[in-house]
Amino acid sequence: MRSAMTIDRHLEPLRTAIQHNCEISDASGSGIFSICGMALRLRDLNKWEQGFSPWEENEPAALVNWIDQKEQLWENLEGQPFGSLPLNGGMYDPFDTQGINTALVPHKLFYGAGYAHALKPTFFLARVAKTLRLEGLEIIILDQELIRDLLTLPALGQDGAIIIRRDAGRLFLWDQMAYLKNSGKRFLSFALKQSGLPDAGIENRKAHFDTLQAVQEQTYIYHEVGEIKDTVFDREVFRQMIAAFPRTSSELLIRTVKDLLADTGPVGTLSHLIATQQAAGLGFYAAFQDGLFLPLFPELRQAFERFASDRDWDGIENARNTGYERAGHYARTLMDIFSDARYSRDTQGAADRIHTLLIEPLIEGHAVG
Prior knowledge:
Oligomer: single chain
Largest sheet: 5 strands, mixed
Radius of gyration: 21 Å
């Protein structure tokens, strides 16, 4: 079990404090998920705690008992403040990631903290596998995670660096394949074949999983590169908008537009896939499109349908350009609406405008299409 992982004895108080903050965050933030979404995250957290492979499942009775224990713990912790973190004889604010990671360098550990979907605080502690530089940015590759919360995030940006969480990424990728909607399955089949799998069966996915994860790791890295390098969606305004519309359809659209800008930007995911002609990565990207991505960027799957037979990378590049232009239009419109709302102090009015002008037409158009 993860609780049995070895760590320097004098760092045990740090690990205990981080774990405590993870439990507080999960206690207060579990309500942001749907029933199905929460069930998936609980299963992932249990797999991680037990040291299971992504495709392994705990016994139903053991899982139910574990969930009951978690819920009892969270009931006692909900609403409590996050605790400071003890390290090297001092106490650190749990969001002082720069200070904490400077102190952790000799131990080859990395501490992550921030706010994710619906502004849920998230924390983790992991071992550093290696670091590299790409596009002028530091890339920190993490493997074994010692502490984590409910969120299975494969990658993130923190303090100007790109963080790749391989432990979480394994669970994330397996879940994407296991729960893929029917509309994405033909794209996944293409990606698996391009990755060298003789067939798309479960056993072949297990046997070649490291290869599949390596393909997706490049996608995670270049998504984060595209996000950091993006100059269209002002980062500070983006943060203010997320804080203004937590747990709403507006937040979902704002995040989707930001992600689309990163993926379709000059140095983002699709630009990298096109430049390196990574057909497998492109197949995975098309397969895993979901939610508002589909109506915002229908050109990608349309272009891929042709690409699958004629390998027309120019068609993919044209689709990328179209997606980038549309994402830019949506980003500027969102920022204009938010600017007007700040001037008039009418946040609810802004949310209504976003829904009426941007979200409803997307949903209706996609339903018709």
